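Reviewer comment 2.1 asked that we show a complete input and output for one of the modelled complexes. We chose the manganese (II) ion case, as it is the one discussed in the main text.
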Amino acid sequence: MATRNASPELLIVMAAGATPDQTEHVVARLQEVGADGRVSRGREVTVIGAIGERDLLAGLPLEGYPGVERVLPILKPYKLVARELAPDPTVIEVDGRRIGDGYFGLIAGPCTVEYREQTLETARAVADAGATMLRGGAFKPRTSPYTFQGLGLDALEVLREARDETGLPIVTELLDPRHVEEVLDVADVVQIGARNMQNFLLLAEVGRTDKPVLLKRGASASVEELLMAAEYVAKEGNERIILCERGIKTFERSLRFTLDLGSVAVLKEETHLPVIVDPSHAAGRRALVLPLARAAAAVGADGIIVEAHPRPEEALCDGPQQIPTAEFGAFAREVTDLAALLGKQIG
Ligand code: PEP
Ligand code: MN
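Response of the prediction step:
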């Protein structure tokens, strides 16, 4: 039985016409599962404060009980990732590179591993410019099945070589749980893309690994849904999660996606996890990547993930938004100078 002086986890609001029997039925059901219900009878409405284990209460279908009007949770539906229960910011460290709590991560690289030289050239350029990790897609989630889908396992070998040469940790996407072993063998940080943000089996799969996870927000997902997706990973035991705002679908067509920078500020309040921004996929075109990257730093992001290519006009994927490697040094300086001005250290 839950203790009498504990605070309720849920408020169960009974309908105006609910009978005392219906209220008693709800309380009896709470008691049956080892919880408790504290009844407050108002002139119009009766409210039951449910006290007990949060997970247990969340699993009860209380909304369907006769006479129940609404069930209002008192605490957030996510808990492992919530700041309310773990106020200290999490720092994700990979091979001495850090993201979070004052450390700004600069993750850069090609959208896609196209061929060995393209990736190695990009890796060298971004390493020289001070990038802290190398990104590059081996398995690509493409809207059209007729476009380049990535080199797959061969790309992983190229990424391995790029890490060996530059020392940069590798961030690459896991698209299919059947590739978990091969991808995790090379990835230092495993990316879950926007399209898979609510692929709950994939989330659980990476939750059972010991690699940090870069979880991108779905283009139509709310902030709460992103946090619940992170909770799926954390629940399996892996709490090394980096969240990423990459733009959402709105009525606005002038950018590829609407970069929701407000969500970064909200996420920083809601969670102890580091939050980064992908200005490349939101912008869709190169000229906008720098202003969005600067805005990300200014709003308090813990880093950015950005695409670069030696010859973007030849890129097999996302050419218009990739920064030419020849210009990457200047780009990186602009963003990291601003982050430094805001008190961040480059991770
Ligand atoms: C990517 O980063 O390569 C990518 C495909 O991004 P998103 O999942 O955000 O579309
Ligand atoms: Mn891309």
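The chain has a mean pLDDT of 96. We note this here for comparison with the apo prediction described in Section 3.2.
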